[in-house]
């Protein structure tokens, strides 16, 4: 949009004064930020309204992305940037003697998700808007986001994240679109005068769902989509339906906290309430829209696509059935046809412990009508499948099994499309995790490799690199990422390489300053910055990284002149509060950091930095400064990974197992420009099947492993209780579930290869350039185009302006 600096200054002064009744010169940073945020939101409001009206007027097909998690990150900068106002705003503030960066740091980063799945949802929102597609998010407005992580004596401590204590300038509560969600009570069917079977309810607990809408601003296309987050509130009492304070107490709980478990399912009643609450409110508001505009119900699948982001919102299937049958009076067959054509499902993990299975008794009591419908879906499924495929397949794929509702099965049966998030992951779904379903419905399965938005992760996070790309290949890559490959042409250009290296060094200096500020650790910006940032989980193998650091430390102690390139190992990771082993790994890394960072024999050769409270904002600081991207999960375990893509796009070289999207990264960048190590997925499957793995043998016969493992428990690492022992035990006595020791040697070798290459700065930077130039396929814009073409059948849509 067009705005002069002068107009901006005028608007800003007015905005501030109208909010606080004094001049901006007297404002606190927080107030100055609030005024700026609300002003930018004002600028957004016109395209936001026009976008909505265009969708309605043209009756375009819309996507609703149902997700229990969204991790949008701070929005001031990205909104101003996407609107095309960032430079104007910065200039204007400078003229007023204010710093944009300082104000933008005052924004809270909403941590409404755990990790990859939530961040992916937000990258998708950004791409949908930027591609001018009608794509809305539907989720929960948690009052408390993911806990704030603090280290006390090296241990993770979780603090509440009360992000709404401050004003959230981006959201608009939308009172006219509330709906009622019913829980519990008794339900029965009664034939009414017209001969319909009517669902009758008594003694239900009614919860008011209040939507809070947040604009999702497209990149310079005047397009603004909607992220709708629901909050549970107590309904105003009615004459015959009122509840006491005691009865309504549990209502407020529903949207209070985000479950902090990543890839770990626990059958907690409150979580099931959250899932149904979000699903029911979302589906009701979609159907209400169709009623308002008189869309024939059978046309629903032509007008809406509902996406189920992992199984968490899989209750969409029975909820849509319920509304179509009970409220819209369609027959079962008509309702099923619509539901099935409307819904699609993405799986994000193959970890068995992550697969949601709700106890039937719990479901029946909390959601009696929904359970009746699930039972009927299951009955019909069994009735159709049994004669065609026989007993084994039918019972293995049923929704109701051994007293539980299998949510993945419900999602697959109720969706016309099922996808994994990287090619290997999709293959594993088809050949292993969902293989019986693949036999029943091969046509439903497809792959959609994840992607990231370059706008947040390159344009905004790495302005130096962005400027260099603009200078060298023009600005087209910003709208059309495939243009990035043109950058390959510069791989031999000495000057470009020099500039690229200088930009990386600048970014590293900035991160080094930040490290000193928050951790008090001095690091050398010329060292290799080696980064592993992701949730802490045994399958991601932060402890393999840990063992290698320990190995290097012991080598240095044994031979202080050993020739290692200086290295800073950087970690960012939260552990689920109940995941003891992950927390023990954090503690050991922190204690090892203390040892290494303070040992004069070590000097610059080795530094270890474990950031507290890793999240989107911290990632934006770390990623542009990374040289090495650690993607070291046991092959077959990481569905895709997305930090691998962000790091690659910022010129880090990947150190990886052939897992998830790492395989595709290697394919695009070429085997010479990535460091691959470890077992492959087929080898992992084979080794598991053979049951011949013996970790103790490796401990006993491999001297490096022996030495490093002993150091975990012999007092080498200071300040440990039994955490070192616990890791030792898991690896040696419990036979190393994730083959850490098996991959150790090849990991160490790859790390040494990294050292050698880094000594040749020119060659290193050339490979870094090739990584940047090969990162376009991982743009979320491409991923979203594929979802849109293959699954959702939605198109880009030009927005019409008034006047
Ligand atoms: C029910 C508990 C629970 C909570 C979260 C189960 C599963 C999850 C998520 C599916 C975990 C998750 O975030 N998975 C990650 O999704 C990313 C986006 O597709 C992938 O890149 C990661 O590989 C995958 O671990």
UniProtKB/TrEMBL annotation:
UniProt keyword NADP present: no
Cofactor: pyridoxal 5'-phosphate
Superkingdom of the source species: Bacteria
Chloroplast keyword on record: no
Chain segments annotated as transmembrane: none
Alphabetically ordered keywords of this record: Allosteric enzyme, Carbohydrate metabolism, Cytoplasm, Glycosyltransferase, Pyridoxal phosphate, Transferase
Substrates-to-products reaction catalysed: [(1->4)-alpha-D-glucosyl](n) + phosphate = [(1->4)-alpha-D-glucosyl](n-1) + alpha-D-glucose 1-phosphate
SUPFAM superfamilies assigned to the protein according to its UniProt record, in alphabetical order: UDP-Glycosyltransferase/glycogen phosphorylase
Coiled coil: none
Location of the protein in the cell: Cytoplasm
Residues recorded as bearing N6-(pyridoxal phosphate)lysine in the entry: 646
GO biological process terms held by the UniProt record: glycogen catabolic process
EC number: 2.4.1.1
GO cellular component, one term: cytoplasm
Listed InterPro entries: Glycg_phsphrylas, Glyco_trans_35
GO MF, any single term: glycogen phosphorylase activity
Function: Allosteric enzyme that catalyzes the rate-limiting step in glycogen catabolism, the phosphorolytic cleavage of glycogen to produce glucose-1-phosphate, and plays a central role in maintaining cellular and organismal glucose homeostasis. Phosphorylase is an important allosteric enzyme in carbohydrate metabolism. Enzymes from different sources differ in their regulatory mechanisms and in their natural substrates. However, all known phosphorylases share catalytic and structural properties.
Record-stated family: Belongs to the glycogen phosphorylase family.
NCBIfam families, alphabetized: P_ylase
The name this protein goes by in its record: Alpha-1,4 glucan phosphorylase
């Amino acid at each position: 949009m067009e705005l002069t600096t002068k107009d901006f200054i005028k608007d800003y002064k007015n905005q501030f004064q109208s909010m606080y009744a004094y001049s901006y010169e007297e404002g606190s940073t927080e107030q100055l930020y609030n005024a700026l945020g609300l002003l930018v939101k004002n600028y957004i409001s016109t395209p936001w309204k026009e976008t909505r009206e265009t969708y309605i007027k043209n009756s375009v097909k819309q996507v609703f992305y149902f997700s229990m998690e969204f991790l949008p990150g701070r929005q001031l900068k990205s909104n101003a940037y996407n609107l095309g106002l960032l430079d104007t705003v910065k200039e204007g503030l400078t003229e007023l003697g204010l710093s944009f960066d300082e104000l933008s740091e005052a924004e809270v980063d909403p941590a409404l998700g755990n990790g990859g799945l939530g961040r992916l949802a937000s990258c998708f929102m950004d791409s949908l808007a930027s591609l001018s597609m009608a794509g809305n998010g539907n989720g929960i407005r948690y009052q408390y986001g993911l806990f704030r992580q603090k280290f006390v004596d090296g241990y993770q401590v979780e603090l509440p994240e009360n992000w709404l204590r401050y004003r959230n300038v981006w959201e608009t509560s939308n009172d006219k679109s509330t709906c009622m969600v019913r829980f519990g009570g008794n339900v029965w069917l009664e034939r009414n005068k017209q001969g319909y079977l009517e669902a009758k309810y008594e003694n239900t607990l009614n919860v008011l769902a209040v939507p809070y809408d947040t604009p999702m601003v497209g990149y310079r296309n005047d397009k603004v989509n909607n992220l709708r987050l629901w909050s549970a509130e107590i309904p105003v009492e009615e004459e015959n339906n009122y509840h006491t304070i005691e009865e309504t107490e549990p209502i407020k709980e529903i949207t209070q906290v985000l479950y902090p478990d990543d890839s770990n399912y626990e059958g907690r009643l409150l979580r099931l309430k959250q899932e149904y609450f979000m699903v029911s409110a979302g589906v009701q508001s979609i159907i209400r829209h169709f009623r308002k505009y008189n869309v024939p119900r059978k046309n629903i699948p032509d007008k809406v696509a509902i996406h189920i982001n992992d199984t968490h919102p899989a209750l969409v299937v029975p909820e849509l059935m319920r509304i179509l049958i009970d409220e819209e009076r369609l027959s079962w067959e008509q309702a099923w046809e619509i539901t099935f054509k409307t819904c699609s499902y993405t799986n994000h993990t193959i970890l068995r412990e992550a697969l949601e299975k709700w106890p039937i008794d719990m479901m029946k009591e909390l959601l009696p009508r929904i359970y009746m419908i699930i039972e009927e879906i299951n009955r019909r499924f069994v009735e159709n499948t049994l004669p065609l495929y026989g007993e084994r397949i039918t019972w293995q794929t049923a929704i109701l099994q051994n007293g539980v509702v299998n949510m993945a099965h419900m999602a697959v049966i109720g969706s016309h499309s099922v996808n994994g998030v990287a090619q290997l992951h999709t293959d594993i779904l088809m050949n292993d995790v969902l293989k019986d379903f693949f036999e029943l419905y091969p046509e439903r399965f497809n792959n959609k490799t994840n992607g990231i938005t370059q706008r947040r992760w390159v344009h905004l996070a790495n302005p130096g690199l962005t400027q260099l790309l603009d200078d060298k290949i023009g600005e087209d890559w910003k709208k059309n990422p495939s243009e990035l490959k043109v950058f390959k042409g510069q791989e031999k250009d000495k000057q470009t390489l020099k500039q690229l290296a200088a930009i990386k060094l600048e970014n590293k200096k900035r991160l080094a300053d930040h490290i000193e500020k928050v951790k008090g650790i001095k690091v050398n910006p010329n060292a290799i910055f080696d980064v592993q940032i992701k949730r802490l989980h045994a399958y991601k193998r932060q402890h393999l990284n840990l063992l290698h650091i320990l190995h290097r430390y012991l080598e240095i102690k044994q031979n202080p002149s050993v020739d290692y390139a200086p290295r800073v190992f950087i970690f960012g990771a939260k552990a689920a509060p109940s995941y003891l082993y992950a927390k023990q790994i954090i503690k050991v890394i922190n204690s090892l950091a203390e040892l290494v960072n303070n040992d004069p024999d070590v000097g610059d050769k080795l530094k270890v930095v474990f950031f507290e409270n890793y999240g989107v904002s911290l990632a934006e600081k770390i990623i542009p400064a990374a040289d090495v991207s650690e993607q070291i999960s046991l092959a077959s375990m990481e569905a895709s990974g997305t930090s691998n893509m962000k790091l690659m796009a910022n010129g880090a070289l990947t150190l990886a197992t052939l897992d998830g999207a790492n395989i595709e990264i290697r394919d695009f960048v070429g085997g010479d420009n990535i460091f691959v190590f470890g077992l492959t997925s087929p080898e992992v499957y084979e080794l598991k099947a053979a049951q011949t793995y013996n970790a103790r043998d490796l401990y006993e016969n491999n001297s490096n492993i022996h030495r490093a493992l002993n150091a975990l428990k012999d007092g080498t690492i200071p300040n440990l209780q039994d955490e070192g022992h616990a890791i030792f035990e898991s690896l040696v006595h419990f036979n190393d579930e994730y083959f850490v020791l098996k991959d150790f040697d090849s990991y160490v070798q790859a790390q040494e290869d990294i050292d050698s290459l880094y000594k040749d700065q020119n060659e290193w930077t050339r490979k870094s350039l090739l990584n940047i130039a090969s990162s376009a396929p991982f743009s979320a814009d491409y991923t979203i185009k594929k979802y849109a073409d293959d699954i959702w059948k939605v198109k880009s849509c030009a927005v019409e302006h008034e006047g």
